[in-house]
TrEMBL record:
The gene is cmk. This is Cytidylate kinase. It comes from the Bacteria. The keyword Kinase applies. The lineage of its organism: Bacteria, Pseudomonadati, Pseudomonadota, Gammaproteobacteria, Pseudomonadales. Its EC number is 2.7.4.25. Residues 6-220 form the Cytidylate kinase domain. ATP binds at residues 10-18. It is found in: Cytoplasm. One of its GO terms (molecular function) is kinase activity. PANTHER family: CYTIDYLATE KINASE, CYTIDYLATE KINASE/PANTOATE-BETA-ALANINE LIGASE. It comes from Marinobacter salexigens.
Length: 223
């Protein structure tokens, strides 16, 4: 398909999730939350008693994922349905994110999810959120944005979200979790987290979501 793609990559907590949702809504384009596919693969593996070290079985789980993204009327994030079960909240947990990043280091698991991601490229266009959207999945994307922020700022945002949700955590624990996840995503050999050569890098440290959105729109040429 030749539908245009806006690839938005970056570490967790950079504001990518919120900004890609807003971009997709504003443009009336499709949205791919590729991280959800890695989270769903990890969750489905656990549900099927597959060890997160069993690469052969993980590939089977990834290739046979029974998943649906159901749009909600108010333009809130889509509901995520795994084999008929609503797992929208469950895939957002720290444990699930950590498990996702463990299986995401395996090239064979990434390969098993590749075509499923490319299938989201449909008219009138796609906003793709991930780590390797501009480098691997959609190398021909018309616009590539690499959204980043300092680890401290990202930890702070995540901490506030967790507090608001009533989760009892310390800022230090959240920062440590972010550092571990960054380390794994940046240093893996399979599709490591890095800006594409032709990406526009936006540092969201100290910016509001509104400011980040307007910088992204400027990058897209819609400001
Ligand atoms: O973005 P999110 O936190 O949902 O992603 C969870 C994990 O999935 C990331 O830490 C990363 O290891 C992996 N991931 C990836 N490639 C993507 C999206 C996510 O490796 N395109």
């Amino acid at each position: 398909d030749n539908a245009p793609v806006i690839a938005v990559d970056g570490p967790g907590g950079s504001g990518k999730g919120t900004v890609t949702q807003m971009l997709a809504k504003k443009l009336g384009w499709h949205l791919l939350d590729s991280g959800a596919l890695y989270r769903l693969t990890a969750l489905a593996a656990i549900r099927q008693n597959v060890s997160l070290d069993n690469e052969t079985e993980l590939v089977r789980v990834a290739a046979s994922l029974d998943v649906a993204f159901e749009p909600t009327p108010e333009g809130e994030p889509a509901k995520v349905i795994l084999a008929g079960e609503d797992v929208t909240a469950e895939i957002r947990t720290e444990t699930c994110g950590d498990n996702a990043s463990r299986i995401a280091v395996m090239q064979s698991v990434r390969d098993a999810l590749l075509q499923r991601q490319r299938d989201f490229q449909q008219e009138p266009g796609l906003v793709a959120d991930g780590r390797d959207m501009g480098t691997v999945v959609f190398p021909n994307a018309s616009v590539k944005i690499f959204l980043t922020a300092s680890a401290e700022e990202r930890a702070h945002r995540r901490y506030s979200q967790l507090k608001a949700a009533g989760v009892d955590v310390s800022i230090d624990a959240v920062l440590e979790e972010i550092r571990v996840r960054d380390e794994r995503d940046i240093n893996r050999s399979a599709a490591p987290l890095k800006p594409a050569d032709d990406a526009q890098v936006i540092d969201s440290t100290g910016l509001s979501i509104k400011e980040v959105l307007s910088r992204c729109l400027a990058a897209v040429g819609q400001a």
